[in-house]
Amino acid sequence: MIAKVVQRNNPKRSKDPLYSAITGIELRFWKRSHRSFPPYDPLMHGPLIEYSVPDGYTEIERYWVNEPYSFISILKKKDLNYFHVVEPALTTYEKELLEILYDDLKDLLTLGKMVKREKKLEVLTDHVLQLFKRYHADLDIPSMHRIMYYLERNFMGEGRINSLLMDPFIEDISCDGPNIPVFLYHAKYRNIMTNIVYEERELNSMVIRLCQKSGKHISIGEPLVDATLPDGSRLQATLGKEITTRGSSFTIRKFRGDPITPIDLINYNTCTVEMMAYFWLAMENGNSALFAGGTASGKTSMLNAVSLFIPPLSKVVSIEDTRELMLHHDNWIAGVTREAISFSDRGEISMYDLLRSALRQRPEYILVGEVRGEEALTLFQAISTGHATYSTIHAGDVQAVVSRLNSEPLNVPRVMLHSLDIMTIQLLTFVDNEKVRRTESVVELTDMDSVTGELLVNELYKWDPLADTFRRSGESHALKMVMQARGWNQEKLEQEMANRKLILEYMSRKQLRDYVSVSLVVQAYSANPAMVLDAIKSDTLQDMISQNI
């Protein structure tokens, strides 16, 4: 089927994302930032993309990622899915002009003055318009926009993978070597192959460019780099065939600008409303927790989500290898490790260094992205001295967590482990042939047997894989300690749990799921519980959030 933009009698936008019933006035997606660039009107100028499904394939879905310049077509052939990035096709004349423009613009932009990020598109557009005029290029408006799309994509974006980085459904991007298709992990289609293939020279250049954008150096002498892209995504890259025999490679784990929240975890059935109310009370009162699980089981997502329950005025220090945590919290120091800046390891700042420094900053809450070295002992020392501490660890069950903490290189004495209050086991599994994340169990560490030295645990919540439900067994030791510390009776504790469940259920029902909204409600309840409960009864909480409460 050929993609076209057509006039429709119905003024509403079509459900088909490839077609847009846009009026001549509604041009906000197609106007360039500079006033001299002629606007593109799809009704007047026609489509920028013409695309037909390849022979032998069936299209099962398509959606825009950069309307109207690029969209995604999900294809199927012999029970396998394929991810097809569709961009404007250029004529021979447009391709030749694009190559000349690209070379000339590199010189102009290199010699030009440094400009702010928000001004870059305007400067690029100015130079392109000047070169169009100098070349006496005979171009219609769609041709100008097609060429400008590729220039903007290559100079300001990430080239051929730019559409992948703009796709909100993609979690990981993996290029395994030259002349090999790029693979993705898609939220809906899981591991899927794309139509993007790099040649060896182009891939080497791409790897070097990604590292330079991350502020890192990569070379044959140092062919392995772990870095963070400007948007927060995690980059792991190799150069040449020194350590990866198939050639250069890169893996990008995309950063979520809108992080997972407690409401998301409730909606995904990763946790129940009651479990989230439990974490809210526990974290509000300074209980420490460790989130364990395998790779991609949702440990960091769980840590980030429950961190939104930290009281608003508390001082928070976070320590990570790569920035992943996102809090709506003013009194927050976000620490990130740094590699050595010389061959003699001078200038290296490790997680242990950051954690040791954090303890001098008098934090009330310490968040550590993951414990895997000598920082683990310092972390448990912080817990023992009264700091509320939260972190993640790679382990599949409680016994595996204890074994890792007691062994090299973590070396945490067993006697210190009972200072930890809560431990969760996160799980990546399948429910009805769909890959899901679940909190397999929530365990409280209550004490240590003085004779055997074994930790005494209370498994409070347990996931039932057959029914895909959670069951509670027994009473919470952590909440009993909260009740005693706050001077509450059992009735008051149950009322506080009921209030928090009511708030979380309301927010889940109203889809108030972004981290800013969740943080504002938590802060408002901390300051004035009656106001929040009244707003729920009168159904005005959403209006209060829009006014920043």
How would you explain this protein's 3D organization?
The chain is of the alpha/beta class and 549 residues long. The protein has three domains: 89 residues, no CATH class; 94 residues, 2-Layer Sandwich (Beta-Lactamase); 285 residues, P-loop containing nucleotide triphosphate hydrolases (Rossmann fold, 3-Layer(aba) Sandwich), CATH 3.40.50.300. It is 35% helix and 23% strand. It contains 18 helices and 18 strands. The strands form two sheets. A nine-stranded mixed β-sheet has the order 1-2-3-6-5-4-9-8-7. Strands 12-11-13-14-10-15-16-17-18 form a nine-stranded mixed β-sheet, sandwiched between helices. Strand 16 and strand 17 form a beta hairpin. Helix 2 packs across helix 3, helix 2 packs across helix 4 and helix 16 crosses helix 17. The longest helix is centred in the N-terminal third of the chain and has 20 residues. It starts with 41 loop residues before the first helix and ends with a helix. The N terminus is likely disordered.
Identify the CATH class of the largest domain: Alpha Beta
Arithmetic mean of pLDDT: 88
Helix coverage percent:
25-40%
Strands in their spatial order, largest beta sheet: 1-2-3-6-5-4-9-8-7
The computed structural class is alpha/beta
For the report, how would you describe the main beta sheet? 9 strands, mixed
Count up the helices.
Answer: 18
Number of beta strands:
18
